[in-house]
Write a structure and sequence with these properties.
alpha/beta; two-stranded antiparallel ribbon
């Protein structure tokens, strides 16, 4: 065959001279005295073809094979889970470094890589890379996390936490069987966490609200973001947050809300660390009779140690109306999970709970993101409904030309009314979702954190331990050889075997009369517990 016919027969389309150059180059690689190592020959051909074609986009594609790009995508996925996601600039640097590393390996082929056109891996290349490996990488808004949280997502903390819960139930059961022990009633018949009904498994947490946060997307003219302003504006009372409000939410393992919310209003005139007197202005707009929503006032609206005993009294009374706790009359004991914020720990408040058959268990420090049910579902759902209700209020109070700005300003009584409306809407949504699908945002939070049904191999903990929890181990090389945790979905009721294995762990338990439960290490065992020193550092 002539060179042209030979090229066409091989699927090469081009001028005869191009084909001749291909054949000449192939002879250099494969002919007498040519490269004998297959990898070296392929590297020589790849580099020569890139130089010959001279198309930057094609060069970028040829700079890495599919397998090499896949390896980069997989690496990004792994390291992002460890708390190190990449920006566009960092990803470009990764590509450039990988390309330089590959060029060094090609030096043995005798190809002058400096003759290759330089490629900058622009926005189009990155977009195509993301599309090609959509199962591995994506672009998302990033949240901040500190090293202390990363270290808390360890196998040791994970094991100690679920062992503590099992030990708590075993200890309470032992005390209930002791007729001389008045602290735990005989009605505590629960040997394992899954023996306790979901309605008696509780979590309380505070949620901060801003009247200007959570604005939703709006319909606007096509290309509005491409105008000189690069924004679509919604006219409201302004972009400043007029006041901060905290709401205290209690959920249960059945996906219900057994206790009305309590709003914490801010008043800058109140001394720091002290609780103020709730006035008529603080209660204005709250449908107390219809919703049961309560209120407290502090300098910032946040929970304080001076407020928590009063809140626990509110919680006990609300649970009693549902027949729970000592005051409920039926001896239906409860467990109350909460994070380790310092405001939660006062002897008066904790004793008040225990005396009313509500036994507190504090989460391990710095783990609430993946360990607290409310943080894993209920809080986000609640904030979304409230944001929608707030946006509706602003839409209905948009000032017209000539109106006074005060007419559209959100006041405390307005927010209270909005909150009551959103509260009713949220309860209705949770009920309808549960009736229609068998689950809702609150139930999901309990399930993925493994607290109800009780499941140490739950989604959130497994993801945390396998992800950011490997940060320090990876840096020291200690993660090698450790098999990843696997999610085991435990149905109701959970298998007793898992509980027995956890109870056999060498962890001793102590429940003081005036404090929260803590784990003390047995000989050769792992230790747990800690102190409530602020943030959500737990005991």
């Amino acid at each position: 065959l002539s060179p042209g016919k030979a090229g066409r027969a091989a699927g090469i389309v081009g001028a005869v001279s191009t084909v001749r150059r291909y054949l000449d180059e192939m002879w250099k690689v494969c002919g007498a005295g040519g490269q004998t190592d297959r990898a070296a020959r392929q590297a020589h051909i790849d580099a020569w073809e890139a130089r010959e074609r001279g198309n930057p986009e094609w060069i970028a594609d040829r700079a890495f094979t599919h397998t090499e790009r896949l390896a980069i995508a997989a690496s990004i996925s792994i390291y992002a889970d460890l708390g190190w996601p990449l920006t566009d600039d960092t990803l470009r640097a990764v590509f450039r470094a990988a390309q330089e590393d590959k060029a060094k390996r090609l030096e043995a082929t005798g190809i002058d890589e400096s003759k290759l056109p330089e490629y900058t891996f622009g926005a189009t290349y990155l977009a195509n890379f993301r599309s090609e490996f959509a199962d591995y990488v994506g672009k998302y808004k990033a949240s901040n996390i500190g090293p202390a949280r990363c270290r808390s997502a360890s196998r040791e903390v994970h094991a100690a936490w679920f062992a503590l819960i099992s030990a708590t139930f075993a200890r309470l059961r032992a005390r209930a069987l002791d007729s001389d022990d008045a602290l735990v009633p005989a009605s505590w018949t629960y040997e394992t966490p899954n023996d306790l009904p979901g309605a008696q498994t509780l979590n309380f947490d505070e949620v901060g609200h801003s009247s200007n946060a959570g604005r939703r997307k709006v319909w606007a003219a096509q290309g509005a973001s491409g105008t000189g302003m690069r924004h679509s504006f919604t006219e409201t009372g302004g972009d400043n947050n007029p006041f901060h409000v905290t709401s205290v939410i209690v959920t249960d393992g059945d996906g219900d809300i057994p206790v009305p919310a309590v709003l914490g209003h801010a008043n800058s005139s109140i001394p720091a660390g002290e609780a103020g007197t709730v006035g008529e202005g603080d209660l204005a707009g709250i449908d107390v009779d219809g919703t049961g929503i309560g209120c407290y006032v502090t300098r910032t609206g946040s929970m304080l140690m001076t407020v928590i005993p009063h809140y626990f009294q509110f919680l006990i009374a609300a649970l009693a109306r549902k027949g729970l706790g000592k005051a409920g009359g039926g001896g239906r004991c409860c467990v109350l999970y909460f994070d380790g914020h310092a405001s939660h720990f006062t002897p008066e408040g904790l004793k008040l709970l225990i005396d009313n058959y509500i036994f507190p268990i504090c989460l391990p420090g710095h783990t609430s993101i993946w360990a607290q049910p409310n943080d894993a579902g209920g809080n986000a759902s609640h904030k979304q409904v409230l944001a929608d209700a707030t946006a509706e209020w602003f839409a209905n109070h948009r000032p017209l030309p000539g109106d006074s700005p005060a007419d559209s300003k959100l006041r405390i009584e307005d927010f209270n009314g909005i909150y009551c409306s959103a509260w009713r809407r949220w309860l209705k949504r949770l009920s309808e979702d549960k009736l229609r699908t068998g689950t809702n945002a609150v139930l999901s939070g309990w399930r993925v954190t493994g607290l109800y049904p009780f499941n140490p191999n739950c989604v959130k903990w497994v993801a945390a331990v396998n992800g950011i929890g490997q940060r320090d181990a990876l840096a020291s090389g200690g993660a090698e050889g450790l098999p990843p945790l696997e999610v085991i979905d435990v149905p109701l009721p959970a298998a007793r075997g898992m509980q027995l294995r956890l109870q056999e762990m060498p962890v001793a338990f102590w429940l003081p009369v005036h404090g929260a439960a803590e784990v003390r290490p047995a000989a050769g065992g792992a230790s747990g517990g800690g102190s409530a020193g602020g943030g959500d550092g737990a005991g």
